[in-house]
Design a protein that fits this description.
The chain has about 400 residues and is mainly alpha-helical. The chain folds into two domains: about 300 residues, Fic-like fold, CATH 1.10.3290.10; about 70 residues, Arc Repressor Mutant, subunit A (Orthogonal Bundle), CATH 1.10.10. About 55% of the residues lie in helices and about 5% in strands. The strands form two sheets. Strands 1-2-3 form a three-stranded antiparallel sheet, with no helix packed on it. Helix 3 crosses helix 4 and helix 13 packs across helix 14. The longest helix has about 35 residues. The protein is elongated.
Length: about 400
């Protein structure tokens, strides 16, 4: 999708007939309503999963927890930018986050100013979630987002001064998805939004995260960067719901997987009657998927930690450690001698000796069918899934 202002740089007026009645034209348009009986069950599931993830995090050691948080934040920054069609460098994002959090991570690389800006915004939102969201803070976020970019048509660090449309297609055949409130209304709309966001007597923080996301992108106060800032605001409120600056799930990663549905649901709700039930259900379902994915990854981290704790004194060579880690990270297909040899860069005879040694130690099991297609897998004991006290 493209963001298009009414007047282009050559002062070409984009003529269009507004066929839809956007929600912000309604009186008291921010008095959103929803069907409590439809939303409550899914909200309950999400809150239960949040508690479960927090419990799993308590079972992690410091280094494991740090690694999990670094991975999540890196993923969130990458995917939030990718939703907008911008692909950032993974290693630069990871290094930028590690440096800003004071984490001693090996092999860090120099990050660009643009990446540092995105990271700075996201970390300020999630690490300082208890601080009030203010106009100055939003302007600072906008400045760091565009710190290294030169766009003469963008007003950096301040609200837009022109009309704004969300469109797709090519010039002459544009499909207008949404037209935001006029710039003259921002001085009234934004203080109302910020006042509501900072109040503590409003809906559950998870619901408030969903509402804030929708409300902000509907106002669309900036020339560019509204989507990324909306997701940062949403993550900020989710951090409040967890009462923790440690992030272990990525909403943006799940939104990216359903990007078309995300835009379709926003557009549908922006031209609705103020009932945002469908938007809340979509948001909660997406958040649930993010939490389930986090639970899966966290269980894997705990499994690996318990496995290596159990085998800390087991004599293993570097090839065996490499292959065992690959098996625990989710090995695709059957593990055969030929695959072992290829991945571990050794002969098939050496691979077979490595495998037989692990069979004798009770770490691997053999496919009972045998023959030339013999495969091997990790022998999983119940204690490996038990959480350490």
């Amino acid at each position: 999708m493209l963001i298009l202002r009414k007047f282009a740089e050559n002062n070409f007026y984009i003529h269009r007939i507004v066929k839809k009645y956007a929600i912000h034209h309604r009186k008291n348009w921010t008095s959103f309503s929803w069907k409590e009986n439809a939303v409550a069950p899914l909200l309950g599931e999400v809150i239960r999963l949040q508690g479960k993830i927090c419990g799993l995090m308590l079972a992690m050691g410091f280094s494991q927890k740090t690694e999990a948080m670094l991975n999540t934040l890196t993923l969130d920054v990458l995917k939030s930018s990718e939703i907008e069609g911008e692909n950032l460098d993974y290693e630069q994002v990871r290094s930028s986050i590690a440096k800003r959090l004071g984490l001693g991570v090996a092999n860090t690389v120099k990050s660009s100013r643009a990446i540092d800006g995105v990271v700075e915004m996201m970390l300020d939102a999630t690490q300082n979630f208890k601080k009030a969201l203010t106009e100055k803070r939003l302007f600072d976020w906008h400045r760091v987002l565009f710190a290294s970019e030169y766009f003469p048509s963008i007003s950096v660090g301040k609200y837009r001064t022109e009309e704004m449309q969300i469109v797709s297609g090519r010039m002459g055949h544009l499909n207008i998805h949404y037209e935001a409130p006029g710039p003259e209304r921002l001085s009234e709309e934004m203080p109302q939004f910020l006042k509501w966001f900072n109040e503590e007597n409003e809906p559950n923080c998870v619901l408030k995260s969903a509402i804030a996301h929708f409300w902000f992108v509907t106002i669309h106060p900036f020339d560019d960067g509204n989507g990324r800032i909306a997701r940062a605001i949403s993550d900020m409120m989710l951090a409040r719901s967890d009462n923790s600056s440690q992030r272990f799930y990525s909403m943006s990663a799940q939104i990216l997987k359903a990007r078309k549905k995300y835009y379709d649901m926003l557009e549908k709700t922006q031209y609705g009657n103020g009932d945002i039930t469908d938007w809340l259900l979509w948001f909660l379902e997406t958040l649930k998927k993010a939490l389930l994915e986090s639970e899966k990854i966290t269980n894997l981290v705990l499994f690996k930690a318990n496995f290596w704790d159990k085998h800390k004194d087991t004599p293993l060579n570097s090839r065996q450690r490499l292959m065992l880690n690959k098996l625990m990270d989710g090995f695709t297909g059957k593990l055969k001698t030929s695959k072992w040899a290829k991945i571990a860069k050794c002969s098939q005879d050496t691979a077979l000796r490595d495998i037989k040694d692990l069979l004798e130690k009770g770490i691997l099991t053999q496919d009972p069918h045998g023959g030339r297609s013999t495969g091997y897998e990790l022998y999983i004991l119940p204690y490996l899934y038990e959480q350490p006290l």
